[in-house]
């Protein structure tokens, strides 16, 4: 399964790879936090998150501090 994820990540655009790596190092982040950490425009972060979600590489959860936002994290084998 890890090999499938690696192949999917290799085929994604650089912005999605950067967002994935930041999530890998920083753990759970909101879209705004990802934009700050990656220094990418919010629209590019949204696109990267959509690409990563469509590949099943990340998961989206409710952000309890602000219910209007979502918290993104790397999808682990336990959550699949």
Automatic annotation (TrEMBL):
Keywords: DNA-binding
Entry coiled-coil feature ranges: none
Single GO molecular function: DNA binding
Keyword DNA-binding belongs to the record: yes
Lineage of the species this protein comes from: Archaea, Methanobacteriati, Methanobacteriota, Stenosarchaea group, Halobacteria
The organism of origin for this protein: Haladaptatus litoreus
Keyword DNA-binding: yes
Name of this protein: Winged helix-turn-helix DNA-binding
Domain of life: Archaea
């Amino acid at each position: 399964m890890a090999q499938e994820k690696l192949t999917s990540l290799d085929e994604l655009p650089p912005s999605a790879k950067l967002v994935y790596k930041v999530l890998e190092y920083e753990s759970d982040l909101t879209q705004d936090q990802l934009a700050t950490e990656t220094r990418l425009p919010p629209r590019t972060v949204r696109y990267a998150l959509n690409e990563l979600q469509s590949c099943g590489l990340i998961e989206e959860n409710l952000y309890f501090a602000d219910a209007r936002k979502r918290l993104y994290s790397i999808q682990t084998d336990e959550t699949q």
